[in-house]
């Protein structure tokens, strides 16, 4: 029986200026997404733009080669920068044929190298490269008194963008000059996952000693370690599977200060633009701080090992005493879940023991930027099989090289050791994410005939394991298994059960002891769950603090294709052959090779399916349901917001710049990370911290269908 497919997710729309906008719902602007054809002239302009000598300071691209690699690593670890490119035709002239031959030669070299690697140990080629570097005596070429590491550090600094250009301080400088913006509330910034640099403090572990006080995550040192010293890098980055803390002899700690998360590597800003714009209206390190943390750790272990929440509580108390004003807490991505956890920790007798009024007395506003409040499917896929959309979309050769260098087993094992990552496991189960009969954000929900057809197909195939299609008719099949896999489609609840059966005891114990993913439906349930720290990062099982004066802003992007569900397949007779090709030096403590994988043969752009990844609306990393539901619906309910703290939602439509200079998307991008450089987001944030948002707060701005989707979610509240 044929299955009617769901429609592609709707695109986003333009975001107006906050001072003049009125609430809008489901606005249409198809012009934003009309692909533009390239021609030879534009290609030449692009070449010119890449030449620094041919551009002004403002036009010069800010990304170096190292930052391009950072973008790949950063996106693979839960920060996505995928963009759709359609229908572009570039005419190849004589000037480009040499490039084609060069690229072809490189590809042939990669293939030959990959074949030769089968006949040698997996570490031989790395040792060979390392030997070349050892034979190259850089020290003999430098002036006396200058050591090679200092020289390389100075060279890499040349690629860092000039932060003194006017563009880096806009729109803050404009608001300062034209509207007299100035600091009012002190600011505390909480970064997200993989944003904070991690420094090595190991002195006894042999491989780590040479990296003492150097960043194993962030800066060019990370690339050196990953490429030339992979096993040492993994041993430093992996946490103990039983304790969730440092392995014996290894100490990796979060960098401190504003530069802990301003740039991940030279040229790749994260919080840099926000810090520069705050400085433009008068802020400095006396009235703004960045509360960095080791994002690998489960939240409870941040306090156990680093006293993180105790230090954060003290800093906010000192700030109130010094400035006489409450703080604005600004969080991004996973940092928003960390703030929710902190609110419960600081009140609880088990934590900071600040009492029920502490948050109301110390926090003026909580600005949640791109927070995955209900988790991300990307986390499930990463922990389940060591894959995400970025790895699934690699070409055949690239995928093979990646598997040889950093296998799925190694990736899954590393991800499972990071307790912080699992804080973003999807929450709410089937009640939020749907079932095989449909999901709240299915594109076909409005068509009764189509939904009836889906139900008919579901009823017929409920007990089958041999499905005729690789695509699922609904997002509610979080893991849709391909024909011949012998596996049925899995809902969110069933996917969690599958993960538990494959991940091993250590991971299951970690997840059970640190996080919950369910729903509380009564006040009695919430009162009981709030006694357990494992519930504190789940907004569906704990309520907001008693803080009627605290404003809660939800600022997030919409209109960008985002991972929502997957088509998977299962290994069969090939399993033993694949295991034989995996690195032999992986620790015996690692989990078994994942026997399921994203099926990249499932691909249909018209249906929003990209190499096994089913895509919906969101910011490129976090689906709309996760960023928006609690903001427009959940926190409007007394059960989850008992003191009726005002909750204000402002969406930003994803609009890429047409300029080749804007490698990160330009000032209107709403990408999950690049939104930190979005002009409208920056203007809104500066209005809040400068006390220019009005007594009632900024007006709500909603472009997406989040209200429609939220109305279809039935949590079963009493």
TrEMBL record:
The keyword Cell cycle does not apply. Residues 9-33 have a biased composition (Low complexity). Gene3D superfamilies: alpha/beta hydrolase (3.40.50.1820). GO terms for biological process: lipid metabolic process. It comes from the Eukaryota. Residues 1-66 are annotated as: Disordered. This is Phospholipid:diacylglycerol acyltransferase. Residues 49-66 have a biased composition (Polar residues). It comes from Actinomortierella ambigua. One of its GO terms (molecular function) is O-acyltransferase activity. The chain crosses the membrane at residues 100-117. Keywords: Membrane, Transmembrane, Transmembrane helix. InterPro entries: AB_hydrolase_fold (IPR029058), LACT/PDAT_acylTrfase (IPR003386). It holds the Pfam family LCAT.
